[in-house]
Amino acid sequence: IQSKASAAAKLKYVSLGVLVLQTTSLVLTMRYSRTLQDEGPRYLASTAVVFTEVIKIIVCVILVFRDHNCSMRGLNQVLKEEIVNKPLETLKLAIPSGIYTLQNNLLYVALSNLDAATYQVTYQLKILTTALFSVSMLRKGLGVYQWLSLVILMMGVALVQV
């Protein structure tokens, strides 16, 4: 039992490290690609966002296909049951996905105009706004450590802005 807990703890830290590496490299790569001084036109941010979403859809379809024993019939059945037969549920996802698409386009604009460090720290304000909305709108309580973490986050954002 102790070795399972130890392995889970190691996996947690490895996952956190990979997430930090992925997020940091994504921001730096996006910033570099948006601020190149080469001749010729830059790529459109909206094109990058659309292709990212298409890749996500393809990966999801492949994973659902694999989960159903690589059966096209099983894949078609799941897609029909979850998307076609539930049009209201699918429509409910249209608003958040539209806002998400707008957000991703604005991220490219922000990275084109801000340095990477300012962008990265300011982008973390989404954690604060999410917490405040969950407290005010969803009546969810936050613990002392969570409030302390939000205060430290705010101080970090303020220091970077100064």
TrEMBL record:
Keywords: Membrane, Sugar transport, Transmembrane, Transmembrane helix, Transport
Domain of life: Eukaryota
Localization (cell): Golgi apparatus membrane
The keyword Glycosyltransferase is assigned to this record: no
Transmembrane segments: 12-32, 44-65, 142-160
Xref: Pfam families: Nuc_sug_transp
Primary location: Golgi
InterPro entries documented for this protein: EmrE-like, Nuc_sug_transpt
Gene Ontology MF term list: pyrimidine nucleotide-sugar transmembrane transporter activity
SUPFAM superfamilies tied to this protein: Multidrug resistance efflux transporter EmrE
Membrane topology: Multi-pass membrane protein
Cellular compartments per GO CC: Golgi membrane
PANTHER family given in the database record: NUCLEOTIDE-SUGAR TRANSMEMBRANE TRANSPORTER
Similarity comment: Belongs to the nucleotide-sugar transporter family. SLC35A subfamily.
Protein name as it appears in the record: Solute carrier family 35 member A3b
Taxonomic source organism: Astyanax mexicanus (Blind cave fish)
